[in-house]
Amino acid sequence: MAGRSGRRGREARIESNANPGNEKPPVWGGLTGGAFRPLSDDNLAEVNEAVLMLLETLGLSQATPSMIEKVCAHGGTYTDDKRLLFPRDLVLKTVAEARRDVVLYGQDRKHDLDLSGARVHMSSGGGAPGVFDIDDGHYRDGSLKDLYDAARICDAMENIHHFSRSIVARDVENVADMDLNTAYACLMGTSKHVSVSVSEPENLQQLADLCYTLAGSEDAFRARPFLTVMVCHVVPPMRFAEEALDTLEAAILAGFPVQLISAGQAGATSPATIAGSLVQAVAETLAGLVFARLIDPNVAALFGPKPLVADLRTGSMCAGGGEQAILMAGAAQMGRYYNLPTTSIAGISDSKTLDAQYGSEKNLAVSSAAHAGSNLITQSCGMQASLLGVSLEAYVVDNDMLGNILRTVRGIEVNAENIGAEVIADVCRGEGHYLGHRHTFSRMKSDYFYPHLGDRRTPREWEEDGSRPIGDTARDKARELLASHFPAHISNEKDAELRDRFNICLSFAQIGRG
Q1: Residue-level pLDDT at 14
Q2: 255: phi then psi, degrees, rounded to nearest 5
């Protein structure tokens, strides 16, 4: 008993003497990854050679007339069997000249994300059809209000740096209205950078008009675009998605940054082997990058090979295994090989609830992608049931997980000050412990990440407080945020202007302004 009370006293002493001043935080968006390299230099070169060979000799089918014209004008070939071939020199030129200085701008400047180098940022994502109801815990169809609520919670989580549309609004039947209102719900819910997809190319212009109105003008949006259009421009294996190519072209011409995504499924729409699935995804993604840069050489494009894994016993997606984690690390490493702004998919748990399976699968996948140097890791939080559902309370739990992962990405900073040889000598000749030393006080906030929900109490203290699992604690926090956190970065006057111009489905009351 005396030992425990003594420890509590020491903890209280440190806390009471800690200087809250202007210490550097323990983690932040943009920490540099890239230390994890599952592919050797020879492996990287071999993957790259296979990619160039496939693009040059097999190419892709179902190209649009616009793409055929542009690629053939730069040395490409359109074959008799209707496949578009990409010459090696054109692909290499595209990679060499693509932008490395991509910044994803927030509506609030403090949320700007620099994607250069191997800087790592965490994002939501998913486009799930369902939500795990925060009140009854059962799966139900997702709504526009759920999407807005998800954005609000992510807005309050400091280790979720970007909001990618995570829920499909099943209560909006008209496709054009759904695309518009998806963007509106996301942009109203957070001042962080937002990414959405567009169902049909015809819907792109009203999305652009919405963003221009929010920014104040088209020029203002083009100078600081705060929304990215995600485009799955291929239907693997090695086929283009024709409508998606039209959407991609329209988005680039309208001034949007774009994510170029290939999401084949190993063993189904891409080879069953990890290496084969990786090669195909990289080839498909680079084909999209060639087209994007032929539309606009200055396009802010994210390289997004996001191949998924299937359980070959059943054919169903199994995104929580080690195969998915290493595949995403390899994809991120190829992004670093090309030095392109890269986005990866990691954190898709197959678990249906906040249990041990959930935590182990998410941590494994997100850690692998982060340490491999992916610039934007989507689906890193909130997703359950192999992308079929989103849990709002899971965002709160995952915020702690992401903070801990980022702390490992930050790594060990070795210098004379951090080694502290003089401090060691001082303590050994003095009190014999470091708990009361000024060096400890000065570093406890800058060097250590303290979880918001992770329980570090003794078993007795935990039992006396009701023995609650972390999911219950997170649910309480999520409810608190939903009742109180209504971002106000968009004024009532600007919102009224949007409602006058566009068919906005969320009411004033639903966004907390009624």
Answers
A1: 33
A2: 95, 10
